[in-house]
User: Fold this.
Amino acid sequence: MRAAVPLDAARHLARLRRCTHLPIVAGFGITNGAQARDGACHADGIVVGSALVEAARLGRLPSLVRTLRRALD
Assistant:
């Protein structure tokens, strides 16, 4: 899992946005609220995958989901 959203993610998403009018949903290895908020600034939605699986494995799923939700509200 990444510590931060890749610096070039915004550039890649902007390039993609010029190619389509469809909603863009992106996943960058988002593991916390700050990364979720940053990703959501550049896309119409975000994908959180392995961080949710790992949180569930550790019994921390509700906490992570609350953290992500607060960051996106």
Notes: The chain has one domain: 9-72.
